[in-house]
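WARN retry 2 of 3 for item q-0093 after timeout on previous attempt; input resubmitted unchanged.
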Amino acid sequence: MNKELKDLAGWTVKAAKSAGADDCKVGISGQRLVEVSYRDRKPENIKEATTKSLNIQIYVNGRYSGQSTSDLRKDALKDFISNAVATTKLLAEDPYRTLPDPKYYEGRKDMDLGLVDPAYAKLTADDRHAIVMAIEAAALEKGGDKVISVTAQERDGHAESFTMTSNGFEGHQEVTYYVAGAEMTVQDEGDRRPAGYEFVVTVNKAKMPSPEKIGAGCAKRTLDLLGAKKIKTETLPIIIENRVAARIFGGLLEAMFGRNIQQKQSFLADKKGTKIASEQLTLIDDPFMKGSLGSQLYDGDGFAAKKRVMIDKGVLKDFYVDWYYSRKLEWEPTTGGPSNLIIPPGKRSVEEIMKDLGRGIFITGFIGGNSNSTTGDASIGILGHLFDGGKPVQSISEMNISDNHLKFWQRLVEVGNDPWPYSQQHFPSLVFADVVVAGV
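OK item q-0093 returned
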C-alpha cells in the first residue's frame, strides 16, 4: 500500500472536518498511462502520462457536493477544501445524501485478487514498439492487397487509489492493465470500405494473445465484411458472438439499476422474483475472480463486495441499488454496479450449434441502435454472416433487429461454451430462436 496516499487522505479528512464539514469521503488516485500506435509501419502516436488527483465529497447541513483537484500540495489543498465546504453550504438540501451506514463496510474479504502484474515494471519502450509492429505486420500480411489502412495500438497502465471516509472506511486498490489491438479498413466493391477491429484487454500480460494472433484476427474480422449485403426480412435463429453479446445485454442491465427504478425509467422495476427470460439465462456477479478486470473487494460506496446471482434460470433475483437510491426507494442496498458479469457457459461450440440450426445469422457486430429502459423496446443494426448447413454462405450488413427485452430474452435457447475472457463481461455466444431480422 502506498503510505503517502493513505497519509494524505487522513490529513484531508481532518482538514475537511476542521473547515466545517459534517462528514466527508476522500479518494486519492495516481495513474501511469503509456500508449503507442503505428500506421504505415511507423509510429503515429506515442504518449506517456503520469497523473494524480484528489476527489472529495462534502456533506454539510444536509447538503452535498463532490469536487476534485490535481494540485496535491497541502497549502493549496487547504484553500481547496475550505472553498469546497463553503460552496457546498450554498447548495439545496438533499436529505438522502449521507455517508453509508458503517455496517455495510463490514465483512470485506482479505484476499489477493491478482490485479497487479509483477512483470509490468519490466515492460520497456522497445517491448511496446515490438508488440505494435508485430500486430500491424500480421494484419497487413493477412489483409493482403485489400488493405487500405491499418492502425495498430498498445496501451498499458498502472493505477492505484486510496479511499477514506470520516465514518471509518478505508480502502486501497491497485491494478495493472494492457490493451492491444488494431483497426483495419479494406477495399470492397465500388466505393464500399468496410472497417473492422480486434482488441483485447487483460490485467496480466502473460494472458494476452500473441501480437501475431491479434493482428491476424483483425484482418480476418475485417475481410469477413467483404461483399456484405442485405437479405430479405426473415424470421431466423441468430447466434450473437461472445465478444459482442454484452452490447445487446446492456439494455437489460440498464433496467436493473436503482437510479432508473427510482426515476420510473425501468421496465424491470416490478419484476423481481418473476421470470424475465428463458431458463437458459443465468447471470452471476462475481467480484472475486482472480485477475479479472472487474474484480474488487469493495464497491463505490465502500460496501464489502459479495458474489450475487442476479438472474437465476430466467428469474430476476436482484437489482443494483447503491446507498443513495436505496434511501430514496426505502429499499435495502445491494451494490452500485456490476463487477465481473458471468453467463455460465454451455457445452457446445458455435460450430456444433450452427450445424443443428440449419439456416440462421451469426452476428459479429452491432451498429448504432437504441434501447428504452422505461419500456424495454430496443432496435439495433447488425453485422455478421448468414449460415446454412453449419457453414457461412454470405456476409450481411445494414440489417436490423427490433424487439422488447422481455420478449427477446425469452427466445434464448442455448449458450455456447466460449466465454469471452478479455472483458468484465464473461459472456459466451448466445443463441436465440425465431428472431425477425429486417432487411430488404
